């Protein structure tokens, strides 16, 4: 079904007319509008919402949006009443800081003890041969990254720390939880810190594991107990919007304070090539040596933060040894049934310490810089303050001399970003950006924030590529996890290659959320070899079989569109079955995604994207 011409024309007009929206837009209004309940909120009368309702009602009366509301309001009326009652009785009560609850302060083991572990002993000679450097190995496919995480858990003898924005109890999630449990059974101290926004389905398995004497699970910045109803969690969200739209986006696994994995992947099937519906193309790096201690120090700061709550404070169920035994049996059965089908077993059965000692891991040694935002970016947030991780990335980008290659699945540059790119290109620096197409993204609202800047970006001299939702059939070229699949493909890697001499990798997107709202981490690896490898991934990922090349329409192309239902200044080009194809509207997105993009374009939500 074709999209409504009026909506498409509105989207086309806005794609060529960027909105000047600062990165310090009022967070509560934008956050409320980002929820799926924004039509309902127009009728709420809670005192905290009064300043928001007048502009919201004006947006809802827009001629493109108003006809869509009546069918939505009827089924949501009951929910509206419940929300009003919950807000009316809730006030602004907040949970006491985590330090008020029984919990122990803990930290990574001292360097001397870490050096005495089998992993530390194996690394000693290599570290001595590379003073002031650390070792790195790219993990480009989901299978490689899953296997390395399991290999690290098996190799741990003292500590295993995990920090993630998302941790799902799906097929691969259970394989990783099983590996953590087996490590704890061997006497390894396991600490797991997960952001609350995506922490669900924990009433049984994770809560049971939390009863293990060697396993502690904490939840960062929670907005409700897992035993509370969704109504109460929604009430908590709406009465403290600014706090709860700020999330811990960091992603790291650290073993024995000697080895770490950082990058873009969370814990879930879609990140490890195991989902039947969605496959994220992502990138991680194994980091060994002194860099791991910097990652550990950041983890400790979050673990002991005043908004890092023990899971048993939020989940009040009681577990006995029988429940833990049942969870162990379930995870063992799950491993037997799924480890082989999902390629979870490390291909090299040799213990990891021996692989390191024998030089079998293919490590590249280089100088590095690790920068992580402080948890105070959330706990003691100042409106509009940029985090340290983003600042360190932008400093490196601004100093580029030859080229900047950008992997940013969620990309909202704003006027300041467009100007910075123009400054680079005017000095002869190549700036090439890969982000998601509208058809491939898992965040349509973000796409609406990005689309108005496509024309200005191209006019500023940037190259622009958008990842396609379907990928070529399997070939030998699997270096970046790009393989044919019936699942929808989506870019999720967050990586930046500067002058083909430095790679910055981590959790950072180039968007306002990473800059000002979420906590992030960034690892800079000053290695031409590593940077060259990722530049190769960029070349593969921006090829016409994998991504659309977005360009400004030529005068001839604009003339051919004149008088038609759609007049776009942009052209998308790709290759399919050996044929070059062109499009004048976001290709493959369909009516629904184009409709939602048009609606989000009407809302001032840029700072929340």
Task: Describe the fold and architecture.
- The chain is of the alpha+beta class.
- Helix content is 39%, strand content 18%.
- The longest helix is centred in the middle third of the chain and has 18 residues.
- The N terminus is likely disordered.
Q: Structural class, please?
A: alpha+beta
The major pleated sheet works out as:
18 strands, mixed
Helix fraction, binned, reads 25-40%
**Helix count, DSSP H or I runs of 4 or more residues:** 26
Query: Based on DSSP secondary structure assignment, what is the total number of beta strands?
Result: 20
Q: What is the terminal-to-terminal distance?
A: 28 Å
Strand content: 15-25%
The global form is globular
Mean pLDDT: 82
The value of Rg in angstroms is 24 Å
Q: Which blocks of ≥5 consecutive residues have pLDDT under 50?
A: 1-61, 72-76, 84-93
Topology record:
Elements: H1 5-15, H2 27-34, H3 38-41, H4 50-60, H5 70-73, H6 77-90, H7 111-115, H8 118-129, E1 134-139, H9 142-155, E2 159-164, H10 171-185, E3 189-195, H11 205-209, E4 215-220, H12 230-238, H13 241-244, E5 252-255, E6 259-263, E7 278-281, E8 284-288, H14 290-303, E9 308-310, H15 311-314, H16 321-338, H17 352-357, E10 364-372, H18 376-379, H19 388-398, E11 403-407, H20 414-426, E12 430-436, H21 444-450, H22 454-459, E13 463-467, E14 488-491, E15 495-498, E16 502-506, H23 512-517, E17 521-526, H24 528-541, E18 547-552, H25 555-561, E19 570-576, E20 579-583, H26 590-600
Parallel strand pairs: 2-3, 3-4, 7-14, 11-12, 12-13
Antiparallel strand pairs: 1-8, 1-10, 2-5, 4-9, 5-6, 6-8, 10-17, 11-15, 13-18, 15-16, 16-17, 18-19, 19-20
Helix pairs in contact: 1-26, 6-12, 9-10, 10-16, 21-26
